Each structure stands twice: as structure tokens, then as C-alpha cells.
Please model this.
Amino acid sequence: MTQAVPPILSITPSRALVDEKFQVLVENLPPGCPVTLHSLHHSEDKDDWEAYGHYVSDHRGVVSVTEDLSFGGTYTGKEPMGLLWSMRPVPGSREGLRLRKINVCTPMLVNISVHSGHEDFRDRTPLASALAERWYMAPGVKRIDINKQGVQGTLFIPPGPGPFPTLLDMWGGGVGLLEYRSALLASRGYVSFSLDYLRSEHLSADVEFKYFETAFNIIRNHPQVIPDRVGILGISLGSTVAFNLTAYSTIIKPRCIVCISSNHYHPPGTTLKAGFKILSKYVLLTVCHENLMIIQIIVTNMYHRHFHKAHFDENNYMSWRSFGLDLIADPSNNVEVGRINCPMLLVNGCDDQNWPTVETAEEVARLLREGGKEHLLSRLAYPGAGHLIEPPFSPHFRATKFIILNSKKKVILLWGGHTKAHSDAQEDSWRKILSFLQLHLYHSPSVKAKL
Amino acid sequence: MDRKQYCVKLSVQPSRGLMDEKFIVLVQNALPGSQLTIRALHQCEDGHSWEAFGHYTADTTGTINVSEDPSIGGTYSGVEQMGLLWSFRPIPGSKSGLRMRKKNIQTPMEVTISVYQGHQTEGFADLVPLSGVAVERWYMAPGVRRIPVTEGGLTAALFLPSGPGPFPGLLDLWGGGGQLVEYRAALLASHGFASMAIDYLTAKITMETGKMVDNQYFETAYRVLQQHPQVCGSKIAMIGLSFGTSITLKMAVYSEVIKLSAAVCISGSHVQPVDGSVEEILRFFQKNGEKTRFSEKNEVIWRDLLLPIPTDPSLKVNVGRLQCPLLLVVGEDDQNWPSQESALDIKEMMARAGNSHLLTVLSYPNAGHLIEPPYTPHARSSTLKTVEIEEKVMCLWGGQTVEHSRAQEDAWKKMVVFLKENLYGGRNPTSFSHL
Model:
């Protein structure tokens, strides 16, 4: 009985960390054959994500995703990792989905298959397929739950004797504790502590500030941590924490900080959680009173005068960027970043629709310049990138759904960014973040350069 | 050197690789010009510890790249990207005659790679490394499935690649030590072949009845593989090492049932009583037992048992009748089988019969008998308990470590291409010429 012998699809390496590249190769096709490479991932939330590219085999019957151009699909051009970063929910999925791994101890499984044809590729069963494992944790990385002195979070420790340079890692507002970046940082040689700072209810700004200082100290005193090589990495609201702590703490002196999608809005005396709650209330009110473009809210809080710039785009996605601009216009509301004395890397997307992060970065630069400290600052501003600058090859979300506290109302929040530019930014910024951290936390600068 | 001042960073990429994949070991941020030792440590399933290490000097940027920089001492020297694996040897104080073989191939081989200050050669257990990472080496790619096979009285394991198939098939046979040895089949499945590893000397049926399997046993294995819905029944090859070569050549030439698309014979011979059963072949070897020699270290040398290569045609598989491509892999320092002499005789027989276009011989100077998948540590000798003799003997396999390791790497690459060309190819003559 003769059967047609199929092509061979190989992924090298088949097991990799999420920030590592792979090579997808198809061999033994007929020459000049139109095929589609298709990637599929079934998420923890039980949604299906996919990407695909249309290719034509060469005279040897080979398609190399690393070398060849995709003629169409969810990505075009020469894109070795397009099958990952251009992933999006399959047709028919719920709106506003976001892909983030919660259990970082297991790998993300991606099935890559090759189908004959281009437009109609879905009508046929795949010719061949292979499975790739994408890991957040390198072998030997340890994950430890921390609940000490009221401080909660997850600690990741690299393999090896240690001690290690260390990072305090903070996410933005919204959903619970996200561990994946910390797991990845530990896989790159840093002890990394993913701090849970929004779950607990802090009654006042002082208490909240103490929480961060306690967290920093717990980490600094850990036996696997080199105490004078601790940095802070924060994204979005997490960057507010980074600015705040570094500018005002008398006991915490991070060796360096990285702020992604920088936000320095933090009026004195307010807590982050309260501010975030009020922001959400505003969103709820705006959604309930969609036609009411001017809203006067009689509450004594930091946002009340500024709720007149509700902004919905043509898809009815909500942007906080313009009213954010108003808020930061008053310097008394912002962290005095001019007080910061350590090297700082700011990473922003120029198409950030969630917060005026580029303007924030410019303001930080201006304040440091005034203080003669501009040499401390490095800035990366990526055209076409949005707010959610994640580790490389993560799918891009221009907008995702946001459930307003305790209500059933949801709105679609606009983060911004255009997929190709945003993905390039994720790849480039991660590499630069790692080299910045390596320079300041691993390498020992000479005494002269030390500040 | 103040440790606080220099945090040495060690990385291995990929940290999870297949057994035949290369990795890059990189040391960064060391004191420029400093002397460092990079060491690999592995504890195998039977509890023995193995180590390999190289001596390096960090360059002016404080970097060492094992794939570019030379080791100037240790268990390997020179620029050896994979030296930390293939030069593994039992740690000092271990018993002699050990051989590294993984039985459970569903879990990875775990290796710890560390970097130490100075050029160290011993006492590693008492030293604190500057840095260390964990590396996993897998026999099975993600998605490869292992299916135990017991039908027809077989003791076998089938490894299916991931994907819809159908896949070309492979029958995988090892040698005189018996057991169900799965690692090569698992690795070949990771390359797209539905591979069945077969135990034919210590099969369950043999252990229970005391009788050796007959020739039908192999034909049953072939049938089971051929009839599997995900196997392309017209594209089946056979690979045998050592005694497995004897079976492979016999089946390829004489079986009415088995029709092979290709055969790979490693470290073996065509010398055997033609059409003899497994038992008859073993008795034939035993008859020549007085030709056993011993090395100065009292290691057993069995290569003379089949020498001189007979001229009597009833004592050699008639390879002139072979109808499929044959790849012979020979270690010229093979002390266990006369594989080089056999290869020469096979070549002659096929030239006379006019089918030598089917033959490819890979002959490696200073390689020994155990030509394994790449980066498998070389064992020049090891203890062996064969089915013929009751007690364990120290068997001399042969080979010089560096050349043997290079042979393993080269032979594997060429073997995979050979299998792909003969089992997957045909559609496009230049399909795999870029490999």
C-alpha cells in the first residue's frame, strides 16, 4: 500500500525560553509549492490563538520561516518569529482578549503546522505539524511564595550558588499578580521578586509607602541576594511605584531602575489603590453616561476636575491618554523625579493610548537636566508601539476588555500600538533592558563612575 | 578577587535541548584574563556521577565562549563546543567499566554546568563555583509519543513523531547485551521517523520460555509497524548495531516478508550461518570462542571470533542480493567485531554482484565499536553481561575518545540524511542536499 510521504516540519529548538528565537523549517515539499504555516495555542483561559503566513517552497522543496518572505497572513515579510508575535484570537472568539500565562511553571505549548494552499488553507488537514514548548522558567529556577511581614508576592531564584543581583518587579494596575516577567528575569540570572501591591488595602499613603520599603528590605536581606545590587523594574502603575520609592525613600537606594510605559502621576497623600479605584469609578460613570461629555463629580479626590476629556475612538475603545495629559500638567501632582540619583532606563511606546508616557519621559528628562543629572537617564521611545510593552514575541493587544470594579460593566481599553512596530519594540526593548541591567547590576562600574 | 566586584554570569543556550542538538556555553563578566574552569556534572540513573571540564582564560571583555575559545586542559582541549558532554567520565573513585546509558527516555538527562575560579582538576565537591546553571538534554521532542508494543509476543516500544503522519517507519536493533534500548529510536522519532525499538535477546517471551526468538519475531515487528495507521507501510528501514547488524542484513536479504527501503548497519558483520536463527548464530560465535584475546588490562577482545572472513558462501549473508540502499558505519579501532574487515568484504561481494551503487561506507579511524548518538560519552571498555555468558566481563570496545566522538557526530548527521533521503525523498532529488 503506497501512501504519499509528507513533508517534514521541524522547530529548532523545540524547547526554548519565551525570549529565545526558533527556526521553523519545512522540507520535502514539491518545488514551488504554495503552503501556509499555521501556529495554534490553546490558552489557560481556554481561548484559541493563532497566526499564519503564506509561503512558497524553493526548488529544493524547502520553506524556511527564518529566511523566506511571508506573502500574507497575520504577518508579511521576513519574520522568523511572526508565528508567535502576530498571534491573535481565532475568528469567533470573544472580544478584547489578552494572552498572559498565569502558571509559569509549565510551558506555553504552540502547535505549528503546514497546510497546502494559501487563502483556503483551513479547508484542508495539515500536511505535517510539530510542537514547540515556550518556557518562562529555565531549568533549576526556583519559585517561592512570599508572605512575610505583611508583604506578599512571588520570588524567583536562579540556579547556582548565588548570591545574585536582584530586581523588584512591579506590574501595572488591574488583574492580580503576574509572575512571568520575574520568572524570565530569574532565567536570565537575577533574583526577581514579583510584588503584589494592589491586592492589599492600604489605608493611607504612608502605610502604602512602608509596604514597598518593607518589601525592598525583605529582598535585600535575603541570603541569595547581593544587597547593594538591587534594582527596580516597573511597568505602567509599577513605574509610578519605582519613581516614588526611588525619589523619596531614605532607606531604599536601588542601584538602577527601569520604567516601562512611565507614569509619574502620584499626588502626595494618596494611595495607588485609591487612585486606581477612582480612575475605575470614572470609567464606570463615563460608560453609564456616554453622552455626557462633561462630568462633574463632587468628591474630593485627585481626578475630579479632569473628567471632561473622555475619549472614545471609532471602535468605541476608551483611551485615558488625553485626560492623563491634563493630570500631569500640574507638577504638584507628580513624583519629583529630579530627586532620583541612580541610573534610569525609560521605555515607552509613541502610540501609547493609555497614558501620556512619552510626555512623562520628556518631563523626567527635563527635570533631570535641570538638576545636572541627565547622564543618569537612557530613553527608548518606539514609534508605533503601545502601552503594553511585554517580553519578546508576546502577541500584541491594541485594546483589551477591562471590567470595572464590582460592576458588570466592561469597557474596552485602548492600549495603542500597531502590531509589527509594537512587536519589534518588544524584542528590541527586552534586549536593551537586559543589557542595561547587566551593566548596572552585574558589571561593577569603577569608583569614579559610581554615583 | 572580591566576589562582590565581579558577578560571573554563566548561560547555556538552549537550556533545554535534544540530545543531538548543540548548545552554546557562555561566561560573561569575569575578571579579564582570569583563569576559569567550566565543569559539567551529571548523575545518571544508577547513581554514578560523571564529570567533564575545560580550562579557559577569560578575554579582555571578561568573556568565554566555549564554541569559539580553546580549552587548554581538562577532559578535553581545543575549541570544542560540545566537549562538556562527550568528554564525560566517571568522577575519581568510581568503579571501573561504567557506561552512560539512559533507560527512562521520557525524562531529560540533567546536567549542571558550573564555572570555578582557577584551573581546577580535582576536589570540585569542596569548591564553591562562581556560577552554575541547570541544563536538560532530551531524547524526545515535544509531542513525540511512546507506545509500548506487546502484540504478537513482541517486547518493543514504538515512538511516533508529532503530527498527523503518515511517517516512514524504522526498526531499531541493538546488540548482544540485550534489553530494550530505546534512546536511539526516541531520538529518531524526534526527526520524523516512526521508530520501533525491539528487544530480541531478553524479550519477555524468551525470559518466560527460555527459548530464543525465531526469525518470525522480526517479521511480526515489521508487520505491526507497517500496519499502524500513522506509518507509511511502503517506507520502512532497519537500523542495527553490533549483533543488530547481523539481524538487519539477514532480514534485508532473505526475508520474504520484510521489504526494506533502506538499511543502516553500525559496527557489525555479515558473517553468520546463512538463514540461521538467532540461536544458531549465537552458537556459531561461541564455537569460535577460543579465538578470544585479552588486552594488557585483561579486557576481552572478541573481534577475532569471526576472522578470517570466510570464503564459504554459506557463512556470509549474500549481500549481492541486496535490493535497498545500505549504509555501513565502521569504527576502524573496533575491538569487539571485525567491522572493518567485514565492510571490505561486503564491498567486494557487492562489486562482483553489480549492486555496489547501493552501498555507502563510513569508516572512521580510531573510532571504536559503540558508535552512539552524538555527544554520548565514549567508553573504550565497559562491563558487559551478554546472553551467552553468565558472569560480567570487561569488554574492550576500542576507540580514542576525541576521534570516536567526532565519528559519532559525523555518522549521526549522515545517517539522518541517509534515512531522510531514502524514506522521505524521491519527490525531489535535491531535497536534503543542503543538510
Remarks:
- The first strand of chain B starts at residue 9 and ends at 13.
- Residues 145-424 of chain B form a domain with the Rossmann fold fold (CATH 3.40.50.1820).
- The mean pLDDT of chain B is 94.
